[in-house]
Amino acid sequence: MDLSERGATSTRHPWERVRADFFRSLIADHVDLTRVDHLVDIGAGDGWFAHELLGALPSTARVTCWDIHYTADDLSAVLPPRVERTTSRPTGTAGLVTLLDVLEHVADDRRFLAEEVVPLVAPDGTLVVSVPAHPHLFSAHDTALHHERRYRRGELLERLDAHFEVVETGPLFTSLLAPRAAQVALERLGRRTESRGVGAWEHGDRFTRAVTGALRLDARAGRAAARRHLALPGLSVWAVCRPRGAA
After folding, report:
1. Which residues, other chains included, contact 235 with Cβ-Cβ below 8 Å and sequence gap of 6+?
2. What is the reported pTM?
């Protein structure tokens, strides 16, 4: 969860739960987690996703949650063993680096990739990236989250191609495109729309299960499309990358 979206409730939004399950499965398909000695989660927010991966890592592996917005309270919080938080780029390299919904916050994303991300990925490591898709869907929600941009798939791949080989890429949350497009259309007509972050989920169990089930089906369809190299659109686009020249 982005730190700006932390709410009063500890209930995880179905979007966040399905997203975490999706990327956990995606990572497991590309990375032998039992051999990862260091995971760096860039823009880790409250660290929930990194903690979700911790159990699949060796007992000696370290997890570093890097987020420039951590407060003194965040940095002094009691964390699970082997997990640390930092506001500065970690030293050394990591076998797995996650960069999930971060690049859109960075003014100079090319420079950030070259100077901050590339040095973190071990020569035989893996980088997993996701960004919000479709610039024409930029809305008040993006502004509220301090997004600089949304990406076309080709734009993301072009930025990554300068440093990495993309081994798989695809969409996530195709079913959410229509609601977001309707929201943007209403905004452009001068209608105010409510923009609530993932930290504001307060619905009952039955509705939560229904939404979660629908989003899980959506995520599976997106992954199936990626495996068949089908250019299915999604609210997000993701990529699994390895440094050029890696075995």
Report:
1. 132, 133, 134, 137, 171, 172, 173, 174, 176, 177, 180
2. 0.91
